[in-house]
Amino acid sequence: MAGGDAGRVVVGLDDSVGARAALRYALEEARRRDGTLEVVTAFVSPERLAVLARIPVVAERAEVAAATEAAARAVVDEVLAAERAEHPDRALPSVEVRAVAGDPGPVLADAADGAALLVLGHRGRGRAATALLGSVGWWCLRHADCPLTVLPEVPLVPAAAPTP
After folding, report:
1. Based on the number of CB atoms within 10 Å of its own CB, is 109 exposed (0-12), middle (13-18) or buried (19 or more)?
2. Model pTM?
3. Residue 36, strand partner residues
4. How far apart are CA 40 and CA 118, in angstroms?
5. What are the start-end ranges of the E strands in 61-164?
6. Which of 49, 73, 94, 159, CA to CA, is 20 to 30 A from 81?
7. Would you give per-residue pLDDT tens digits along the chain (164 residues)?
8. How are strands ordered across the β-sheet holding 148-152?
9. What is the C-alpha separation between 79 and 72, in angstroms, rounded?
10. In this structure, what DSSP letter does residue 88 have?
């Protein structure tokens, strides 16, 4: 592991609640390791989407990358603001946000090359699905060259106690 990567924590970000939990966990891990946090979000390139959907390319890759990165940055900024409000006395690690064209598994495994830790959220679609890793988790488990942590989706609001 390169010296600069010794504390680098990579987290995959999508639009799931599990990904937000993973982001919070990765932020704490980067802080604990006195390292950096790299937030990576994968997107389908317009060229690939055109082939898959059999439609003409309607957007430039750079535009899609910029929009995807901006959406990820908005989520990161929201989580960082909540972290600052909750722990104003604690320093935040350096955070980089990147959008990369490609399938999430390979994109995240490549991004985690040499990292101290890769963190993913789990969508957990249904009782049986929550017992298993998703396809991205399996890909990263088999191909990432660093430790992997997968966090389950957690409810935003605790369930209310039954009323008598």
Report:
1. buried
2. 0.83
3. 94
4. 10
5. 94-101, 117-122, 148-152
6. 159
7. 444 477 999 999 998 888 999 999 999 999 999 999 999 999 988 787 777 777 777 778 889 899 999 999 999 999 999 999 999 999 999 999 999 999 999 999 999 999 999 999 986 555 554 455 678 888 999 999 999 999 876 554 455 556 66
8. 94-101, 36-43, 9-12, 117-122, 148-152
9. 11
10. T
